[in-house]
Amino acid sequence: MISERLKLQPVYKEFVRELKQGRLSNAYLFVGEDSLTGEAMLSEAEAAIMCPTYGCGVCKACKAVFANSHPDVHIYNREKKMNVSDAENLVVEAQKGGWQSGTRIFAIYNAEKLTPEVQNKLLKVMEEPPEGAVILMHAAHESALLPTVRSRVKLIRLPLWDTRSVCEELEERGAPSGIATVASRLAGGSFSLALAYAEEEGLEEDYARVFDMLANCANTRDAAKYVYSDIFTAEKIRRVLDFTEIILRDVLADKAGAGVQRYTYNRDYDLNRIGDGFTAGGAAMAILRVNALRSMLEVNIAPETVGEKMLFDILEAKYKWRQS
Ligand SMILES: [Zn+2]
To answer: Which of 53, 111, 152, 235 could be stapled to 137 by a disulfide with Cβ–Cβ 3.0 to 4.6 Å?
Structure first.
């Protein structure tokens, strides 16, 4: 569970430590691109504030928080987009006393989607915080919030996760291990992204096909064979670029002798074949080229053209840099 992983992280422990010291701020902004981590942090923070023992998970207050039924925890912008009248309602509610406790929590999910009008309304509560009212927000990026809002919140950055945690989380949720491995490596530390990948159809097959293509594409004649196969289609091309990039990153790491975490897994034989003939400089150049191809897709260049260029660019990077 993401919540359990989060509770082991310094960011959560520090939040609870401050609570125990009686240092509860009246507005928090948790920032992190992974929406699932953000949601988990908000609900764990709600429980930690309401629970007599700071988030035990089993008491009446904790259970009410996790069941979304705590009378003093108000949730905004999660199932329904928060509008100006919701923000006005929040301001009114914040002035009232709590039902069960002296504290009322106003938790705002997906705060990067709040309009400036809504944010301006919320400022009132932040500028003159009513006794016992606490605002908790999660946003993917802090830049989406007005500077006036940002200056009145305590900003806490959420962690990105290591590949192993993401992989284990996917397996716990029932993903087959091959898919969990690929998806977690693609996701760059985001549970949300990894889950989205894991649910994509044909992920593992396409991953294997990209390996196969890169291992077998030794010259331009080989490349032509792949250009009109069904791997470079509008729906698959981005994924092919992603896969190619992570494979080339491992080639680069091998060539450079860098002891970094590998992105691919159990593919040493294929990796050696793909890396054959590459220098570290060539691999680095190939990665840059593949990355640059994404902008061709933005301007609607045909996927098979992008695919063809990808294969030729990789070959060119390999041969050009070998000689110099
Ligand atoms: Zn509790």
So the answer is: 111
CA of 66 to the centre of ligand 1 (A): 10
Question: Taking the model in full, what pTM does it have?
Answer: 0.74
Helices and strands (H and E) in the chain: how many: 16, 5
- State which H helix or E strand residue 305 sits in: helix 303-323
**CA 199–ligand 1 middle distance (angstroms):** 34
Neighbours of 252 (CB within 10 A): 22
Q: How far is the CA of 107 from the centre of ligand 1 (A)?
A: 18
Q: pLDDT tens digits for the chain (324 residues)? A: 999 999 999 999 999 999 999 999 999 999 998 999 999 999 999 999 999 999 999 999 999 999 999 999 999 999 899 999 999 999 999 988 766 678 999 999 999 999 999 999 999 999 999 999 999 999 999 899 999 999 999 999 998 899 899 999 999 999 888 888 888 888 878 999 899 888 888 888 888 899 999 999 888 888 888 888 888 999 899 889 988 998 998 899 988 887 776 777 778 888 899 999 899 999 999 999 999 998 898 898 999 999 999 999 999 999 888 755
**What span, in angstroms and rounded, lies between the C-alpha atoms of 61 and 52?**
8
Q: How far is the CA of 32 from the centre of ligand 1 (A)?
A: 25
DSSP 23: -
**C-alpha dihedral (66, 189, 154, 58), degrees to nearest 10:** 20
